[in-house]
Amino acid sequence: MSFDVVDHRAFARQWAVQNSKIGWLLGAGASAAARVPTADHIMMDLLLRMYADAHQLVRQKLSLSEARDRDRIREYYDNRNGMPALSDPSAYSVAFQLALPDAGARRQHLRSLFEGRSPSYGQRILGAFVAAGLSDLVITTNFDDLIEKAVEQAQVTLGDPTRSRLGVADLGNSGQANLALSNSDFPFLFKLHGDFRDRELKNLESELQTQDANMRQAVLDASRRFGLAVMGYSGRDASVMGMLREAVATEGAFPAGLWWMGRQPETVLAPVEELFDACATSGVSAYFVKMETFDETLGALGRQAELPDGLRGYVDGIQAKPRAVDGGLPQHDRGSLPALRMNALPVLETPTRALRATLTKVPDRKEMGQALHDVFWRGAAVSTGRQVLALGSAEVLGNALDIEGSIEQCDINPAIEGAPTVERALIYEALARGLARDLPVQARIRDSGHRLIVTTERKDRPDSEHKARVRRLLQEAYGEELTGQCPSKMGRGADGKSRRFAESVELSLEWRLGVLWLLFVPRTWVSALPPAGRRKGQGDPASAWRKERWVNRRNEKWAAIIDAWAKAIAPQDQTEVSVLPADLSERDLVGGRFVLSRTTAYSREAK
């Protein structure tokens, strides 16, 4: 795969010259800022409804904003109970089929999600471009009507009766798309998967395998007249990607180039890579545009655009002022010290080099994990599409996975604001594993979040002096056993014995106030209840037991537990955590270290 990479500002300058010659293909990410739920949120909401029904729970008492509820739902449906792995692209479609098998019910549900939404900042700027004649063609896979609303608002502001109204073609009148192109009747919007207000929609995997013939031909015809900027779209729909590859193969396709927008070029899916390869073969200019958000990118275009006076004032006036801004860290010499101590430690230093490789195919995460385990992999590795980023031995990584080409070293900078997700995920795993080596804990690495779980002290393998000291510190803070067996009424584990519990912390990394923070949240871990031990219509009895265990851990007790974990994780002013074990003998290691401050975040009383 070979293509040029530019940032969104470079694209904005290019667009300012070509503007109306570049059409737009917008996916779900273009509507996210307007609070239109993403496919993942819609899927989880459907699973929540089914979960409540399966366990005879009141649906209103469950919430996706509660981590506990999300975890329970994911555990119940992740590769279980009729669902594939929730990370599988087909999971969204399967959830719809299970929860709402009737097409009419699906339409009604989507209507309830999309009605009453208002265009986002970026959509309103795009609406101004359409009204001003700077954008003539918009194609979308979305069901919502936000682009139509944004264009209407801008046209009312412009008040120019000579500018044509926005034409719309969806699955109910797809022939209008061909007619508009034949007559150059612009501006025009193609809604590839339909409109939530219509009877015809395409949102199931079986429905997305083919594209409406009229709509497909219209896009192919348009590809000979326009370039295409793709934004907020992952490339998961087989029919859309097949249509774009067919367009690229047409002589003279995308005369103003193909501009695929995303956070990092390394994260593109295999179908997008294939599209770029097709562009290279056909001689189509193709670029990956590095961007953060739809709104930010459209804002950059808005600053470059030449707009009529009425629309210039409209665009300049719609950018909302931020409701909250970073206020800087409090200083020790300004007022009394902390009223609230936070469960967050500053990450002062992270690794700066990593291994990068391309796999021969998109890996199954469980299979990839097992392959690494089989060769005694001692590092950290994460994948996105066919790309793998790792810390460890290149030789061992190559022995475990089917690598295409060679394994390279690359620079990473995961501690900056807006760092690529794959880099942040890599150091997240590496830090969890690194901390576990020096503490009396086991690192549990999961897609849903990493956790450090206190281990039971073993007589045949006694703790080191440091681990024993940490165990005593935690024991004193909790004031009760850190590990043990759950009451028999909570069922038995997969081994047939009583389920086990242990105190633990859930870890996460967040960027705030110009600093990367390691957040640690104390929780009580309980071993899983196997499917055979679950009773239909009943939740996990461990949930209530955990609540009872924590009900009296308030104020001073909670503060003591936070303090103990902070001292365990970062006992020194600058605590060094090695990425790799010290006993590794391979010579091609790429690792590094973390440096953590032991001063937790804090907040004073507002005055």
Uncertain segments of ≥5 residues (pLDDT<50)? 198-211, 321-325
Strand order of the largest sheet: 1-8-7-6-2-3-5-4
Largest sheet, strands/sense/barrel: 8 strands, parallel
Q: Tell me the radius of gyration.
A: 27 Å
Name of the level-1 CATH class of the largest domain: Alpha Beta
Under the CATH scheme, the architecture of the largest domain is: 3-Layer(aba) Sandwich
Instruction: Look at the helices and sheets and give the structural class.
Output: alpha/beta
Described by the principal axes of the CA atoms, the overall outline is: globular
Question: What is the residue-averaged pLDDT?
Answer: 83
Q: How much β-strand is present in the residues?
A: 15-25%
Portion in helices: 25-40%
| N-C termini distance | 57 Å
How many domains? The number is 4
How would you sum up this structure, described in words?
The chain is of the alpha/beta class and 607 residues long. The protein has 4 domains: 4-35 and 120-318, Rossmann fold (3-Layer(aba) Sandwich); 39-114, no CATH class; 353-411, Alpha-Beta Plaits, CATH 3.30.70; 418-603, no CATH class. It has 19 helices and 23 strands. The strands form 4 sheets. The protein has an 8-stranded parallel sheet with strand order 1-8-7-6-2-3-5-4, with helices on both faces. Strands 10, 15, 16, 17, 18, 19, 20 and 22 form an 8-stranded antiparallel sheet that branches. Strands 11, 12, 13, 14 and 21 form a 5-stranded antiparallel sheet that branches. Helix 6 (121-132) runs antiparallel to helix 13 (309-318), helix 9 runs parallel beside helix 10 and helix 10 (238-248) packs parallel to helix 11 (270-282).
